[in-house]
Structure formats: C-alpha cells, structure tokens
Amino acid sequence: MEKTKYVYWKDGDMWLGYLEEFPDYITQGETPDELKENLRDIYNELTGGNIPCVRRTGELEVA
Fold first, then answer.
1. How far apart are CA 26 and CA 63, in angstroms?
2. Confidence (pTM)
3. Which residues make beta-bridge pairs with 9?
4. How many CB atoms lie within 10 A of CB 17?
5. Dist CA 63 CA 11 (whole Å)
6. What would the 3-class secondary structure string for the chain be?
7. How far is CA 21 from CA 3, 4, 43, 60, in A?
8. Neighbouring-strand partners of residue 7
9. Cα 38 to Cα 32: distance, rounded to the nearest angstrom
10. pLDDT tens digits, residue range 16-52?
C-alpha cells in the first residue's frame, strides 16, 4: 500500500487539507474521513496526468 503525508486543520465546520507533495492543491470535507477521501481523489488526479502543469515539492541535498 502506497502512503503519502498530508497537512490538515479544522476551520469552522469544515476540515481542510493538502498533500505535502502538492501544497498548491487544497481540498476540504465536512468530516476527517470525507477530507481523506477528497485527498485520495486529488492525489489520483494529480499523479494520473489529468491536470497539466502540476507543481510539486522535492528535497535537495546541498551538503
């Protein structure tokens, strides 16, 4: 099973979050479980080549 990290928070009645690798793409849900499902959906869209010009984060060794 593949895993990815995400950042999430509660804002009023909604849960918001984004995938660490794709911080430009925020999604939301009424519950934490709905948020996770929406994060899975956006992950599949972003990694499936369906969205052009996707910006990602990376890690660079400098020393």
1. 32
2. 0.86
3. 16
4. 19
5. 39
6. CCCCCEEEEEECCEEEEEECCEEEEEEEECCHHHHHHHHHHHHHHHHCCCCCCCCCCCCCCCC
7. 12, 8, 9, 14
8. 18
9. 10
10. 999 999 999 999 999 999 999 999 999 999 999 888 8
Q: How many CB atoms lie within 10 A of CB 56?
A: 12
CA distance 57 to 32: 24
Q: What phi, psi does 23 have (nearest 5°)?
A: -70, -15
Query: 19 - beta bridge partners?
Result: 6, 22
- Residue the block writes with tokens 């009023």: 12
∠ Cα 35 12 22 (to 5°): 40
The residues, ordered by sequence, that sit 6+ positions from 22 with a Cβ below 8 Å of its Cβ are 42, 43, 46, 54, 55, 56, 57
